[in-house]
Amino acid sequence: MRESFNEISRIEPMDVFYVGERIKTYFEYPAHCHEVYELNFVENAAGVKRTIGDSRESIGNLDLVFITGSKLVHVWEQGDCPRQEIHEITIHIDPDTFQGPLLDKRAFTSIRRMIERAQRGLAFPPAVIQILREDIINIAHSNDSFASVIRLFNLLYRLSLVEGAHELSSSSFAEVREGNEDERVKSVKQYIAEHYMHDICLQEMADIAHMSAESFSRFFRNKTGRTPNRYLIDYRLGIAARMLVTTKQSVSEIGFSCGFNTLSHFNRLFRESKGCTPSEFREQF
After folding, report:
1. Which terminus in the chain has less CB density within 10 A, N or C?
2. Domain for residue 20, yes or no?
């Protein structure tokens, strides 16, 4: 992977979060990851390239991303954005705040789900960011630590209810830790993680869940939002993307080792998912 480092957060031991606000003209902070949760707000930076795991996107004038994966490398790079006044607010949240019985309470159900999804990085729609912009700025400017924590919890709750937030990195690239998931789904995902390099048919996965193929396909899609075959393809592509940036194996070797039967099939699916060929993806990283 690109040169990156583990960032040490500036959160004090007795604090819930740390917030940093910057007005700048250029993105120069290197690729990094960290144990703390990060909520990053950027405005007036259209054209900047945002890389979260194996996701690489050009952002618009408003960007808000929530990251909870401790190994999820991320970076914002200048891209096509001209040098102008860019406003950035970064909030680092102590993960221990959401450990123990607190997060298990019913009131925190939606926040818990959002934290699980954000292991892959979670980007929010511009219309939502515009609505919540002042709330984010108020947290950055608050001098009352208790009031700012209440504001932060309220912000996280409102974000957890947003429809249209999309996950960024593939789960296999981000090395996502599964949460409270149906045991049948967990078993199938574990089987895929151990056998993705081999041919896996729908009936094999259905047998693990002790269901018919047709019933399992509906069940899996209802629980995950993807068909079993789509999940399998995405898992393989995530592993392939990680291998492209962490090994020197050829593209064809990586494709075959990840369970793709032909190089053309691998290239086509990779381009459809990432917007570039495996070779271009490697060059970008």
Report:
1. N
2. yes
pLDDT tens digits, one per residue of 221-267: 988 888 999 999 999 999 999 999 889 999 999 999 999 999 999 99
Domain range holding 107? 5-171
Neighbours of 52 (CB within 10 A): 25
Domain count within the chain:
2
- pTM summary value: 0.80
The total of other beta-carbon atoms located within 10 Å of residue 208's CB is: 16
Quote the Cα angle for 79-84-90, to 5°. 75
43 and 140 belong to one structural domain: yes
Shared domain for 29 and 154, answered yes or no, is yes
H or E element that contains 115: helix 109-117
What distance in Å separates the CA atoms of residue 191 and residue 238, rounded to the nearest whole number? 16
- What tokens were used for 1? 């992977």
Q: Are residues 265 and 198 in the same domain?
A: yes
Q: Which long-range contacts (CB under 8 A, 24 or more apart) does 213-217 make?
A: none
Instruction: Pull the structure tokens for residue 203.
Output: 């009936």
Asked whether 65 and 168 are in contact (CB, 8 A), the reply is yes
Contact (CB, 8 A) for 73 and 67: no
Partnered with residue 65 across adjacent β-strands are: 40, 123
Q: Write the CB contacts of 275 (distance below 8 Å, at least 6 apart in sequence).
A: 56
CA torsion sign for 127, 128, 130, 131 is: positive
Question: 208-234 pLDDT, tens per residue?
Answer: 999 999 999 999 998 888 899 999 999
